[in-house]
């Protein structure tokens, strides 16, 4: 039921700031020189458009297909991990944090769905399949290559690095990037991204509110350091870093979508036991309320700040 409702809202939408760009890419998908050369779109996404364009000339059908693919990868992953992750909490997390934006940013969100799907391989220690999945996602959106770092961080934990070491080195890396931001982001990988310049601003405290409670809950409630716990911790830590960097370069901030799996899995990790005690006091009900309010807050903040900027409101559909 939730799949059909979420898919329907995406599949028949004809809104989003980049809607006409995606339509233009689809309409001209058979001209790969135009798609890859002029628009400088990654070759993987260019071929996705090419193959769908080969079977239909309807952009509505194209939208139906890619929307289904986006959600199917997420739901299929959650089904495969149903013994570890609570399906309801995970769907709540995904639908409030990385769902509506698909209508505007299809390319990076398809890549993020592939990364989400690849987490089952990382949890199962099937590293070849994981790396191949990251390569596939990178062919859709180059920024997905950042996910090669996740197993590297896991390796550090295995060689007796503690979690606070990762926090320290991550913060150190953040401040180094921030200090040399103009030099780093002056390197042009593609002219497509030249428009995303550095904005002179300060780092907002909101990211601490978004991430620190999750990091604290994982560390406080999970002493076993299982594969899933490690991955969730690393993903949320990465999310904090890139979201903070997003204050002065928006393109980097968008990459938080690759780390949503960490937020989707955390409620299951924290509430895996029947009772949760801090100093002999049962806080399970409080934590349940916290998660509901947290995810509600995240979608409300998005609706108030970016829903119109992304062109998702006013919402329009091909059905009405």
Detailed description of the structure:
65% of the residues lie in helices and 1% in strands. It contains 16 helices and two strands. It is an all-alpha fold and 320 residues long. The chain is globular, with a radius of gyration of 20 Å. The two termini are 22 Å apart. It has a two-stranded antiparallel ribbon with strand order 1-2. Strand 1 (277-278) and strand 2 form a beta hairpin. It has helices at 2-11, 19-27, 32-38, 43-55, 59-80, 87-97, 106-123, 127-140, 149-158, 163-179, 181-185, 206-221, 227-245, 250-253, 260-270, 284-305, and strands at residues 277-278, 281-282. Helix 12 (206-221) packs across helix 15 (260-270).
Q: How far apart are the first and last residues' alpha carbons, in Å?
A: 22 Å
Percentage of residues in strands: under 5%
Main sheet attributes: strand count, strand direction, barrel closure: 2 strands, antiparallel
Low-confidence segments, given as residue ranges, are none
How much helix, percentage-wise, in residues? 55-70%
User: How many H/I helical runs?
Assistant: 16
Radius of gyration, rounded?
20 Å
Secondary structure category = mainly alpha
* Number of beta-strand segments: 2
Series of H and E elements: HHHHHHHHHHHHHHHEEH
Average pLDDT rating: 84
Globular, elongated, flat, extended or rod-shaped: what is the shape? Answer: globular
Order of strands in the sheet with most strands: 1-2
């Amino acid at each position: 039921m939730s799949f059909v409702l979420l898919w329907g809202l995406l599949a028949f939408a004809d809104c989003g700031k980049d809607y006409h760009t995606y339509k233009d890419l689809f309409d001209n998908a058979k001209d790969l020189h135009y798609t890859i050369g002029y628009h400088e779109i990654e070759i993987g996404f260019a071929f996705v458009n090419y193959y769908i364009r080969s079977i239909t000339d309807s952009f509505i059908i194209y939208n139906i297909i890619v929307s289904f693919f986006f959600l199917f990868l997420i739901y299929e992953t959650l089904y495969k991990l149903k013994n570890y992750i609570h399906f309801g909490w995970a769907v709540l997390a995904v639908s409030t944090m990385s769902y509506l934006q698909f209508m505007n940013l299809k390319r990076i969100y398809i890549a993020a769905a592939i990364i989400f799907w690849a987490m089952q391989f990382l949890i199962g220690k099937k590293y070849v399949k994981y790396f191949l999945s990251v390569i596939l996602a990178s062919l859709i959106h180059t920024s997905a290559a950042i996910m090669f770092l996740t197993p590297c961080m896991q390796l550090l934990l295995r060689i007796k690095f503690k979690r606070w070491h990762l926090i320290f080195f991550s913060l150190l890396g953040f401040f180094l990037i921030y200090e040399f931001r103009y030099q780093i982001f002056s390197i042009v990988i593609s002219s497509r991204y030249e428009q995303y310049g550095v904005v002179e601003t300060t780092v907002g405290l909101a990211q601490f509110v978004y991430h620190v409670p999750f990091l604290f809950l994982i560390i406080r409630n999970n002493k076993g350091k299982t594969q899933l716990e490690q991955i969730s911790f690393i993903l949320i830590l990465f999310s904090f870093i890139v979201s903070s960097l997003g204050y002065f370069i928006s393109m980097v901030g968008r990459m938080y979508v690759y780390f949503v799996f960490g937020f989707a899995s955390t409620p299951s990790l924290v509430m895996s036991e029947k009772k949760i005690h801090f100093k002999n006091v049962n806080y399970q009900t409080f934590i349940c309320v916290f998660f509901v309010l947290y995810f509600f807050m995240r979608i409300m903040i998005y609706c108030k700040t970016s829903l119109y900027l992304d062109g998702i409101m006013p919402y329009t559909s091909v059905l009405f």
